[in-house]
Write a structure and sequence with these properties.
Elements lengths: L2 E3 L2 E6 L1 H7 L8 E3 L9 H5 L3 H12 L7 H10 L10 E5 L2 E5 L9 H5 L2 H12 L5 E6 L3 H10 L5 E8 L5 H8 L6 E6 L3 H12 L7 E4 L5 H4 L3 H13 L9 E6 L4 H11 L4 E8 L4 H8 L1 E3 L20 H9 L2 H14 L1 E3 L10 E5 L2 H15 L5 H13 L5 E5 L7 H7 L9 H12 L5 H4 L11 E2 L1 H13 L4
Parallel strand pairs: 5-15, 6-7, 6-9, 7-8, 8-16, 10-11, 10-15, 11-14
Antiparallel strand pairs: 1-2, 1-3, 4-5, 12-13
Helix pairs in contact: 1-6, 3-4, 3-11, 4-6, 11-12, 14-15, 16-17, 16-18, 18-19
């Protein structure tokens, strides 16, 4: 198996090279030459704990890591910081399961992949003999930033720089990032939206830096995307083991979707042999993906909406480019679509609609999101965050046939103001920790310690400005001698 750009199938790279580069030189994303099929290994995988199953999935894609015992031990150790023995939990409510992906160190699903990405990079460096300093550039709409900082902070010969939209994340998310006190970390709050952050990082990945190599922790990096496939398999096998479904029964996954990485991992899992009926793409009011699945037109020429589910406030869904490749296997077609999007603000691909039957798509308004948080809590006593609520509301709308799993991507306390207000209570927007305490008092659900103790943490990053200021300050950090 080799890797190549979605925009050029003529130049081939090893898995290690693809991981270390992060983004192809032509701006495309790396994809594997083939997708492995492991349908005949389900019984074997069902016996494995999460970390070992994840290692098996990763090695299906990155075959050169299979015999690396250091890598295997690192992957198993990566999940030691999770507060659940099963790593993920399933909450079953009337024929629907919520896949709780927030039991990691930063209380969001990004921990699943970002906990192992440093070890993938280390293994790739061993394979390629690259021993120098390495930097990670990361754009975040909230959760990726802290998860990446947590994964790379304090690692020798690594630096990490994170850029986020200054007014586009929750207060808890912002405090998580800006309180990360390690000399090899840097955080910048950009006067712009996530798409601006993502464009900045993609442009900077194409630049040269003195004395240091750079890659990305965003899901544009194939090393970040692949580990996410594992929790689809683990969840399915756990449902079989728990007697919720029969082996071979097709089920649906409803995914709150922004940059399209999480749902793409589900699509890859299906192509690898997982019995999936429908992948439901759930958007918030930035419903560009819903429109595409209905019309075949991807049009970013619309108002960008700041919502209560900020991690999904995205108009340029980078991983959608990979889906275009998997469907068409045509690098010229994909390149043409991406050029049209860049030059004209849209691309038209109506001819692909017949090939998108694996997907359903819909969106939830701000009002529908709040109502869903209240409905689920009132009906079941179960608290969900705003992003999970988007997916839950969309699942209620589309009502797919068969068993459905809703991906619950963040702990509700990461968005406690929006959650408390959704439950009909006033929130003190000047003090996030009073809101957190009020939500605890109302629901009896204890906030994770890592979030509650943020009020005692010192802010060590206070860098804000426009794109040019962000670029220059991040470059200075990368090329400095510290860390």
């Amino acid at each position: 198996m080799y890797y190549h750009s979605t925009r050029n199938n003529n130049e081939h790279f090893s898995a290690s090279e693809a991981i270390l580069k992060g983004l192809a030189d032509d701006g495309g994303l790396f994809v594997p030459s083939e997708l492995p099929n492991i349908a005949n290994r389900m019984d074997e995988l069902a016996k494995l704990p999460y970390a070992k199953l994840c290692h098996q999935i990763i090695c299906e894609f990155f075959e050169e890591f299979k015999d690396d015992k250091i890598f295997e031990a690192d992957i198993i150790r990566a999940y030691d910081k999770f507060d659940s023995l099963d790593i993920l939990e399933l909450k079953e409510l009337d024929g629907v399961s919520y896949m709780e992906l927030y039991h990691g160190p930063t209380c969001a699903f990004k921990d699943f992949a970002l906990s192992v990405l440093p070890y993938e990079i280390m293994a790739a460096k061993r394979k390629t003999g690259r021993e120098g300093k390495f930097a990670i550039l990361t754009a975040t709409s909230g959760d990726t930033g802290k998860a990446a900082l947590e994964a790379f902070r304090g690692l020798e010969n690594f630096k990490i720089a994170v850029v986020y939209p200054k007014n586009g994340v929750s207060k808890i998310q912002e405090m998580q990032m800006n309180s990360t006190a390690e000399s090899n970390t840097y955080v910048f709050g950009l006067d712009g939206n996530f798409d601006d952050c993502q464009t900045l990082v993609k442009n900077m990945l194409a630049e040269h830096y003195e004395g240091i190599d750079v890659s990305s922790a965003n899901s544009i990096n194939i090393g970040r995307l692949v580990p996410q496939v594992a929790y689809y398999f683990f969840t399915y096998l756990k449902l079989v083991k728990d007697g919720q479904i029969e082996q071979g029964q097709k089920i649906n996954f409803c995914v709150p979707t922004g940059n399209f990485g999480d749902i793409l991992a589900g699509y890859i899992a299906k192509k690898m042999g997982l019995p999936v009926a429908k992948l439901i793409c759930a958007s918030n009011s930035n419903n560009i993906l819903t429109d595409f699945f209905r019309t075949g037109v991807y049009d970013k020429r619309r108002k960008f909406v700041v919502t209560k589910s900020p991690s999904m406030d995205i108009l340029i869904s980078s991983n959608f480019e990979r889906l275009l490749w998997f469907i068409t296997r045509d690098d010229e077609y994909v390149s043409g679509c991406m050029n049209d999007l860049k030059e004209n603000g849209l691309f038209m691909a109506k001819e692909l609609l017949p090939f998108l039957k694996d997907f359903l798509a819909d969106f939830a308004t701000e009002e529908e999101t709040s109502k869903e948080i209240k409905r689920v809590y009132k009906q079941y006593g179960y608290l969900i965050d705003t992003h999970t609520a988007v997916a839950s509301a969309v699942a209620e709308k589309v009502k797919p046939e068969g068993y459905t799993v809703i991906l619950s991507t963040a702990n509700p306390y990461k968005f406690c103001t929006a959650v408390l207000e959704s439950l009909g209570k006033k929130a003190d927007k000047k003090d996030e920790f009073k809101v957190l305490e009020a939500l605890q008092k109302l629901t009896g659900m204890v906030a994770p310690y890592t979030l509650a103790e943020l009020k005692n943490q010192k802010i060590v990053h206070d860098n804000t400005g426009d794109i040019s200021q962000a670029r220059e300050s991040i470059r200075r950090f990368l090329e400095s001698e510290n860390a």
